[in-house]
Structure formats: structure tokens, C-alpha cells
């Protein structure tokens, strides 16, 4: 299988985890910010989470550096364009990018400016390349909650015109969903779709809660439904698609090795899975690499790959028109 040429869909990719190291250097120079190093290799090393990362929190510390240069409209627009450009160049046909508007306010940008800049960069790339995309707004579940409704309100202007969904991200604590019920409800009322990071570092119970309390239609990672019967059955019965991110899951110790990843067992048992990058830079990966890893580690046939690709289409938050376009690539 030619992993580079084969059409791909990425439904779980963080903007701030996917910044080119060279862009960090250039933006820091333009913005007169001092970096820990001027050497591109050292910058890259600082941005990539090590294989030996002890846990998710260590992994999440890698976002500080890229976020430091993502505080202006120009920088956000540029980085958004580049993520879509990088994906398009490896035959990703559809990409849903997520980011946390709360993390881009250090110089006083409004949520409208932040979200608008990301959407603008994406649209520029959609015009230039054969790629379509949408944005997901990630709320950081460890930050104060007083501005969540403002973010949802600001995104509404772009809803179904660049923005499609609501997500909760960041460190995962047991039972976190309970505190977010009114916010998820507010987002759904406004027309947002819902995907939630759950069952990555936390238990299957978080997945159960994300679906039953928050209305999640997809789950970011969801690995720990393994061994939690109620969560497993709920995900399977309600056809909730899991956004699997193999390299990231090994880095954050959600699984010890790729071979121990439950993705194949899930797939064989009829649990819907998709293959995604999570963070192109922090996980030092591409969709080509993620597809290769899964196909080779688990001996998937071309047909099985396209079955997963089809799950990604049908469970994407794309418009019907874009889904039609993506179906045309199925063999
Ligand atoms: O795998 C992950 N699990 C949970 N949170 C994550 C993951 N990757 C990135 N982020 C968090 O999402 C924020 C917005 O993009 C990032 O700044 C990071 O804190
Ligand atoms: Zn993620």
C-alpha cells in the first residue's frame, strides 16, 4: 500500500501541536520574542514530546512554546494555512483541526479575532489545495469556566462556515464531565456538534459520561472503554466513533506499545474507529505515518483501510456536499 498516495482523513488534529518548527523561529523573530534556542533542531527537540513521556501532563507541557508565538491574528492565520497545506501535500482530503481559543488571548485578541483568523487561514488553503476542513473549538477543562459561553457565542458566527464542533481538552480528571453539562448543552442548542477527549488518561467512565451527559457523538481517544463494559457497550450501541491517535497514545502512556493498542480489537468487534494524528509536531508524525503504523502493526488489508476511511467520512462533521466529494475516493 502506498501510504502517502492513499486518500486520508484526519478528524483529530490540534493546531498548536502541529506548528512547523521553522515557523516558530520566523514568528519569534518577527514578534521580537526570545526563544530558548535559535537552532531549528533544538526547537524541534523542544516541541516533540519524548517517547519516554511519563504521562499526558508532561506531553501537554510541549504546547507552551508554540502558543507563545500564536498570539496575533497574522500568526494564527499563517499557522492554520500551513497545517492544512502540510496535510494536503500528503493527500489528506479532509481535516478537522481543533484549538483552544482561551490560549490565544495573551496579547488581548478577542475570541472573534482568534477564531476568525484560524478560519481565514483554512479557507486560503482550501482554495489552493484539494483539501476541505473545519474547526473544532476546544475548551480547556482545567481553566476557569467564566468565558466558555463567550467562546461558543463567538464561534456561532462561523458555524457551518468553518466551525462545526465543541470539544473538551487538556488534562483528564475523573468525573470531569459533570461540571460541563450546561456548557455542552448551550453549544448543542446553538448548533454545535460534540466530540470530547475522554478515556485517554482517565477511565472508561469518563467516556460513558461524555456520551450520556454531554452528548458526545465522537470521542477523542476512548482507549479506556477497554475493560469498562458499560462504556464499551454504549459506544458500540450508539455508533460513537473513536478518534484514535496511535503515536500520541504511546507517548502519553495511554498504551505501553503500539502492539498493545486496542484499535484492531475494537475494529474487529464493530466499535467504530478512525485514524488521526493528534499533534503533527508534538507527536512528530503525519497521517501517512499513522496510517502506515496501524496498517502494518495490525496487518490490515486495503479493504479494511478503506472501511476505516469510510467511518471517518460518515462520522466527520463535514457537510453532505463535502462527504460526497470524499466518498468519490473510496476504492
Ligand atoms: O491528546 C491530548 N489530550 C488532551 N489534551 C490535548 C491533547 N493534545 C493537545 N491537547 C490540548 O489541547 C489544547 C488545544 O489544542 C492544547 O494546547 C493542549 O493543551
Ligand atoms: Zn487531542
Helix/strand/pairing category: alpha/beta
Specify the overall morphology.
globular
Instruction: Write the CATH homologous superfamily.
Output: Metal-dependent hydrolases
List all distinct small molecules, including ions and cofactors, that are bound in this structure: inosine, zinc ion
CATH class: Alpha Beta
Fraction in beta strands: 5-15%
What is the fold-level CATH name, i.e. the topology?
A: TIM Barrel
Question: Judging by the overall fold, what is the CATH architecture?
Answer: Alpha-Beta Barrel
Distance between the termini: 13 Å
Count of individual beta strands: 8
Radius of gyration: 18 Å
Overall mean pLDDT score? Answer: 97
List SSEs in N-to-C order: EHHHHHEHEHEHEHEHEHHEHHH
User: Could you give a short account of the major beta sheet?
Assistant: 8 strands, parallel
Q: Roughly how much helix do the residues carry, as a percent range?
A: 40-55%
How would you write the strand order of the largest sheet?
Answer: 1-2-3-4-5-6-7-8
Unreliable stretches (pLDDT < 50, length at least 5) are none
How many structural domains can be distinguished in the coordinates? 1
Number of discrete helical segments: 15
GO molecular function: adenosine deaminase activity; zinc ion binding
Binding site for substrate: 14, 16, 170
InterPro entries: A_deaminase (IPR028893), A_deaminase_dom (IPR001365), Ado/ade_deaminase (IPR006330), Metal_Hydrolase (IPR032466)
Site (Important for catalytic activity): 221
Amino acid at each position: 500500500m502506498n501510504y502517502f498516495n492513499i486518500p486520508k482523513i484526519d478528524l483529530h488534529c490540534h493546531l498548536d501541536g502541529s506548528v512547523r518548527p521553522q515557523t516558530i523561529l520566523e514568528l519569534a523573530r518577527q514578534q521580537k520574542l526570545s526563544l530558548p534556542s535559535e537552532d531549528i533542531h533544538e526547537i524541534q527537540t523542544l516541541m516533540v514530546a519524548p517517547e519516554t513521556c511519563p504521562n499526558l501532563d508532561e506531553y501537554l507541557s510541549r504546547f507552551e512554546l508554540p502558543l507563545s508565538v500564536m498570539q496575533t491574528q497574522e500568526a494564527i492565520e499563517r499557522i492554520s494555512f500551513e497545517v492544512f497545506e502540510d496535510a494536503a501535500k500528503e493527500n489528506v482530503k479532509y481535516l478537522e483541526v481543533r484549538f483552544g481559543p482561551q490560549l490565544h488571548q495573551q496579547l488581548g485578541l478577542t475570541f472573534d479575532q482568534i477564531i476568525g483568523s484560524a478560519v481565514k487561514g483554512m479557507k486560503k488553503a482550501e482554495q489552493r489545495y484539494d483539501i476541505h476542513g473545519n474547526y473544532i473549538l476546544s475548551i480547556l477543562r482545567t481553566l476557569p469556566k467564566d468565558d466558555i459561553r463567550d467562546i461558543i457565542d463567538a464561534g456561532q458566527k462561523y458555524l457551518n462556515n468553518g466551525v462545526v464542533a465543541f470539544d473538551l481538552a487538556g488534562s483528564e480528571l475523573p468525573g470531569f464531565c459533570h461540571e460541563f453539562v450546561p456548557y455542552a448543552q448551550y453549544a448543542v442548542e446553538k448548533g454545535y456538534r460534540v466530540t470530547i477527549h475522554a478515556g485517554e488518561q482517565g477511565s472508561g467512565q469518563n467516556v460513558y459520561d461524555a456520551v450520556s451527559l454531554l452528548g458526545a457523538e465522537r470521542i477523542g481517544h476512548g482507549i479506556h472503554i477497554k475493560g469498562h463494559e458499560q462504556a464499551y457497550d454504549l459506544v458500540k450501541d450508539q455508533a460513537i466513533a473513536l478518534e484514535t491517535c496511535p503515536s500520541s497514545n504511546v507517548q502519553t502512556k495511554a498504551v505501553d506499545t503500539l502492539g498493545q493498542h486496542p484499535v484492531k480489537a475494537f475494529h474487529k468487534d464493530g466499535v467504530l474507529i478512525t485514524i488521526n494524528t493528534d499533534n503533527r509536531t508534538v507527536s512528530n508524525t503525519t497521517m501517512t505515518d499513522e496510517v502506515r503504523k496501524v496498517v502494518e502493526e495490525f496487518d490490515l488489508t486495503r479493504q479494511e483501510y478503506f472501511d476505516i476511511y469510510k467511518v471517518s467520512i460518515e462520522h466527520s462533521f463535514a457537510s453532505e456536499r463535502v462527504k460526497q466529494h470524499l466518498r468519490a475516493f473510496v476504492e
